[in-house]
Amino acid sequence: MLTEPTSIEGSVKFPISIDSENSGVGASSQTKGTTRKRKATHQSHKSESIGMVIEKCLLNWGIDKLFTITVDHASSNDVAIGYLRKKFNPRGGLVQNGKYLRMRCMTHIVNLIVVEGLKEINKSVERVRGLLDMWNSTYLMLNTAQNFERAFERFEEQDTNFRAELERGEGWPSVDDCDNVRNLRDFLEHFYEVTLCISGTSYVTSNIFFDELSEIDILLRDAQVNSNVDFNVMAIKMKEKYDKYWGDIDKMNLLMFVACVLDPRQKLKYLEFALSEMSSFEKACGMMQKLKESLYELFDKYKPPLHSTCSQSSVLTHVSLGEPQKKMERQMQALYKKRELKICGLMQMEIFWREKMDANREY
């Protein structure tokens, strides 16, 4: 019986982590140095324990072949993934020797990006309600609060102490504050929708990762040139965090691109266009070459079992792509369609003039 490689999604965390920038490296105390060595050894062993637990679970579930494992960005996960690669690869349980085994959790990175931006939030939000611990809760709060803008005016009419109470805190929300809140709500709505979309469990999500990522890239680039200074600073901080994880397309897991081109709605031409928008033309071309080579490698990997499977059974498995309806406009796709229409228009014009010249020669 053919066993297909499995992709595992989850959030593997461990409470102890080593911060190399703040670990005190270079301290003169030998005791401190010894303590740090013990902590590092302890961390390494505990991280391998995570890998052992994952291995045990997979084997108990009867999973002996792995494609990817989705984990968040933690040093302990690096060691755990290394352990799994070491254990599964000799058994032939990894696709292409585990080259694409680790997939960074997209929702975790989106969360880090938004939290980084909200650190720069101005007084407007605090005057309306106050910044909540979770950014998605902040979005939902703003989405509700902006509908009650006129209620603040009514409160003052009904209760003379209302304004005085607010003035003791962050102050009375002005018209500008309400405008800022509305703009922030609209901005956060993009990230809220992305998080809901890629966290779905009743439909395929791997094919939409790159599309959502490219939308975030455009959104942050546009926000950096916003006329509102506070908004501008927030967007710059968010773009810096975005670039830390996704700024270099060469460091992304290639399977995000593979899943994109296997979606019949996208294909290679769209991906090439999107990558050239997000990076330099040279880098985009280099990545497309790597992608094509990887597609051939993956095809060769699956070719023999697919041939034998098709001869045994002709039953097809239906996979639903029923993603949730998106309210926000897809900017990258709109740019691509605009470019394609322009190219088609130029081609049609060229055909028209060529036919006209041929007709003139015949005449």
From TrEMBL:
hAT-like transposase RNase-H fold domain ranges (all copies): 199-302
**By its UniProt entry, which InterPro entries does this protein fall under?**
hAT-like_transposase_RNase-H, RNaseH-like_sf
Q: Where is this region: Disordered?
A: 19-47
Which Pfam families does the entry link to?
hAT-like_RNase-H (PF14372)
| Compositionally skewed regions (Polar residues) per UniProt | 19-33
- Residue spans with biased composition (Basic residues)? 34-44
Q: What is this protein called?
A: hAT-like transposase RNase-H fold domain-containing protein
Please report the organism this UniProt entry assigns to the protein: Gossypium arboreum (Tree cotton)
